[in-house]
Amino acid sequence: MNKKLFLTAAAIPVALIVPTVASAEEMVTVTGQNIVNETLTVHQLPNNAIVNAYQWYYLEKVASEDGSKTSTNKPIAGATSASLKVPVEAAGKTIFVEATTTEGKKYQSEPRTINQLDLAITTPTLEGFSTSDFVAPGETVKVAGVTVTDKAGAKLTSGQITYSYQWFYHLGEGENSFTIIEGASGSTYTIPKDAIDKGIKDIIVKVKAQVGASFVESPRSEVISISKEPTDTLTKDISNLLVNDNKYNVSDLKSFEEKVKALESKYQALSAPAKGNVSNYAVLKRALEDVDLINKLNEKVDKVEGVNDKDLPKYIKEIETAYDKFDLLQRSLDVNDALYTSIKNLLNEPNDLEEIKEVRRLNQAIVNLLSYSNGISQYVPSDKDSLQGVVNTIEADIAKLSQNYRGAVQNLTILNEAKADIKKVEQFIKSFDKLSTNNTPNKQVTVAKSIRSTYEKLTYKQLKLVPDKYVQLLTTAESAEESQIATLNNDIDSYIGDDIYPINPSASSWQSHVNNVARMVKEYKSLTKASAAKIEGYDSLVTLQKDLKTAEKVIKDMDAYQKLSGTTGVTESKLNSSYTNTLKAFNKLTTLQQSLVYNADDFLLNTPKGSVDGKVPDDKAAAEALKGDIAKYADVTKFTFDQLEKAVDASAQSYKKLSSAARKYVTNYYLLTAAQKDISGVKSFYKKIQTAKEETDAAKQAKKIESVQKAYAKLPANQQQLAKEQYDALLKNQIIDGNAPNIKQLNDEIATIVSNDQYLVSIDKINTLSKQYSSLSSSDKKLITNYDILKAAIADVKKVESFMKTYEKSFSTNPSTVIKAFEKLTSKQVSLIHSDIRKLISEKQQGQQQTNEHALTLIESINSLLVNGEYIADLEGKVKDIRTKYDALSADDKKIVKNYSKLTQAESDLKKVADVHALYKADGDEAAIKAWQSAYGKLSKKLELLYKNMYPQDIK
């Protein structure tokens, strides 16, 4: 701070010299008050004066060299307009304005003396401390209010006033004796933390204001006392909240709560620095939190009656757990253990003998759900609805048990499997929604196949739950195509023959036969695969359908020829050509195909009548004789192959010897060429027969004969007739293969391997049938209509063989794994397992389902460790005894003891109490006692009572 501001400013005498006064006509007139911050304005100029510049001046006196004083004009900086706001620097000075015209002529106003400033200042007010009487170390006091005015009437602005400050503290005995506080020269002053120690107890401040060259100093402020008294009192009151580190000073929770809230209000009223002087606020904060915890838990206890029975155990457990977390200090707020007693009354440990009795009954009820026969288990209730009723009753009774005893109920796997089996059966029954007698037979069989697949995946226990009516519905749907199969077989048989088709078609019946064959083919295609396998002669039916199309073309050609032969004007060559081409087409047909050509006789009897023009050749008679021989070839049935071959060769030679003119008389020469082709075709076919005859291996010969049969079926009718003798001889003399598969026998054996969802044969037999099937040719495999049965059996064998590996590996060491895998097998799969093995598995399964009395008794013993939330007397001995018995249990029995965690909790609590007792030193120093008290204070109520019970000598 500039301490010169606190000195009295000396007044500097100024002599005013007024400029030479010009005549009134040459003066500038100015209006306005001679007061700081007022505005002076040029009001009037001399006549004819055109002013373009102004300058305001101070009129000052300066000392000359001879000691006299002369006047001088000092321009006021920036004052170059017709108006001037009087600056604070002008106070007490003389000023005038000079106006300059455009011609350079200057005019001045009369000098005016500005009033001196006569400053006044108010007593400063202070703020920033917590109370009206004291300021605490660390708080900052601030000058809040001081006002400076001019008694002469100048309207000062805040920017024109400069303030300076100085703080003082009381020194000595004199009431008004104050000394400067070094460095305290700002508008604020922060009380040092050690102010009281340094003797700074009462402080004041003085403010000096400067406006221009004028000064004014304020009266001293009110005395402010520095004191720790408010925070000291608060600190002491907070300390009084505690009796010791582990106990509040409380006799009534409500009064204590009001007290800590009142102290909190006082604390919050303090400034931040003052709060820092309250060293034990953490105690007050902890007390507020602890009161809130106790109140909330009391509220939760009060709401117990509104909690439903289902949620009540969990709700009470939450209350108990919350109270157990309270340390000794917090529990001291529970005056007379009122809250603790209320919680104890809520607790009800499940040690009731009636509940154990109910557990034992339920265990037996669950076991009684199953019965065993021949090593296979099934449910005692005969259908799913009965089983569902029993399961619902058992589950309802389990729900009535207390939480701990629910965990003691054994064999829940049986109960859960029963529910899963019921659901599985319900899903199976649901699949019948897709089955309807209104569906087509094919649709019924298709849906039935899907249902059958699901049915066969059911276990034996599940199968027994399926009502008989659904099995009957399934069987009926599976046979929905049987009548259709019988009808179709009869229809096909009426259309199929060995040498000729027996239908004897005519022009009027032709289309109906075509339609019937198409219908039968369509019906066959609509059948399921299994049903289609029961249709006989379908391949022949398909051949018939093709033969009808082939024969129909020849029929149309014959009709066209007949029409042409009855038409006048048709040339002989055209008629011959039509006949010849049609006859060739007819001769290419197989015997079966020719049997369909109903107009063949009429055609063959209506041969063209030929004529020859010109000179009659010498060998005409020979030609006509040859024509007669060739005409016999139209019916090859009158020839053997050798006869025909010899006759045709002779006719061919005769034809060559004829003259060209004579050959024209052999109008049926086409019959000769057709016969030659037939002979050539038969010879080629004979080669196939010869190859088959020469084969000595029966199996290979069979395949070659199969090829011959296919070739024979494709021969034209004439060739079939000519080759029939040797063809029949081949079939008659076929080598008999003693090792050839008996398709019928294999089919029959497969059909009898399963009945009523049980296999009637062994795994070895199924494997034998599988090998027999695999050895068949592709064509023979198609004849095995019962392959689906064999296929399912083979899959079941694989499942069973996999299970047997598990059985051999794990049954002696881990029977539970084997039992679990066994339960997943289907009824048919189980029937493949030897009865002795099934018996061993069922015995082990029943053995595991027996109630373990040792485990139930142990559960009772563990539950008895606590009575209404407090440990029993001689807890340590009881816990050791239970531990010994528990360790003696098998691994499976240990799983039954669902309240085992209570035993480990008791062991843990005994250790905690022992650890605290180890800290106790009857003759220990203060630090040791403090350590024990701290550890003891952290014990829960339950452990505190246990400690007092076990180590009463430690408590004084």
Helix content: 40-55%
Q: Which class of secondary structure composition applies to the elements? A: alpha+beta
Distance between the termini: 67 Å
Which residues form runs of ≥5 with pLDDT under 50? 1-22
The rough form would be described as: elongated
Count all strands and give the number: 27
Please report the number of helical segments: 40
Give the overall pLDDT as a whole number: 87
Rg, rounded, reads: 65 Å
Largest sheet: 6 strands, mixed
Strand content: 5-15%
What does this structure look like?
By secondary structure, the chain is of the alpha+beta class. Helices cover 52% and strands 12% of the residues. Strands 11, 14, 15, 17, 18 and 19 form a six-stranded mixed sheet that branches. Strands 3, 4, 6, 7 and 8 form a five-stranded antiparallel sheet that branches. The longest helix has 28 residues, at 538-565. Mean pLDDT is 87; it is low at 1-22.
